[in-house]
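Please check this protein record:
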Amino acid sequence: MTFWDLTWLSPLLLIVAVAGCVYGLTAAWLAGRFAAAAPARLPAETAAPSVTVLKPLCGLEPRLYENLETFCRQDYAGPVQIVFGVQNAADPAIGVVERLQAAYPALRIDLVVDPRQHGSNRKVSNLINMAERIAHAVIVLADSDMVVRPDYLERVVAALSQPGVTGVTCLYHGVPADRGVYAHLSALAIDVQFLPNVVMGTALGLAKPCFGSTIAFRTESLAAIGGFQRIRNDLADDYELGEALRDLGGRVVIPNFTIGHTCVDTEIRGLWRHELRWNRTIRNVDPGGYAGSIVTHAFPLALIGALLPGAGTPALAVAALALACRIVLCARLERAFGLDAHPYWLLPIRDILSFANFSWGFVSGAVTWKGHDYRVVADGTLIPEAQLGKDAEAPTA
């Protein structure tokens, strides 16, 4: 048998697929344990600390008003300030903020319009401009497409109040913005890829994540790490902020609940580019872990193995087993975190698409964010493609 004989490849793929089935079932069990843990509570005898919520905005996203409004409807005992920020005076998100200010006059809602650019990461530049308005003791940073329940702030601040904690981040689940197939595929990517991988990684001590869904920390911590300027050029700004908070000698914890991430993709191209940016971010943060996550793609691997020469009937059985385990995992996550039921017929399509995107994530470092193209260099920082073009045209000595 020669290397090019390929008869060796099918058994190898099937072994990895079986390992992926075990992985998925273990993640389902761990997710149930994680969700059932007792939540942290603020001490009854102490006053709730004041909170500033930072919401960087860029453009008019679907359901933007509804998403932002959930942060205005918090059952929180302490003072709350919400700071929204844009970098373009013509940004249509400004109108959404003005509607919120009119609808919630008793809530302090600040709007920062500042075009200053401090680095290659536009979101972080926005945050640097917004930081001048921070008025309270606790900062809660959250992306614009998140949806939260009324007890969100109380639970996040309670987790931050635990001894030895310097930061809090939150798991999130997918919320399709409409009934379209692509929005549901996007939500499935979060719920059956992201969620179980994070639960497994943190349970085994293999991952120390920090997500843009929520990053909560104290105002003095932001000053101690050098402000948002520290991460102004990083692609994985959320992860790097978490690392900076850990460098202060504390932990970044994850409370045992999820918040919603609105999935707005309406076409395959947008879905593909969105997920490719996620994959390349993960690849830059943890290259070994990213490569090792091939085991999570059990169904596509088994399907490829079944299509190779000489695979036989057992290979089809492994593919069927992998798909069944995927359904079990999805159902368990829905139950553990109280999620809406997914259309399970999309799972095989979702898994094949995820594997293709995962594989393409190794090819290059190009990413797109809010219509801007970037190249990721070896240290994980971003360089605008336009700047690379200028550098290439510049005369050399």
Observations:
- The CA atoms of residues 375 and 388 lie 8 Å apart.
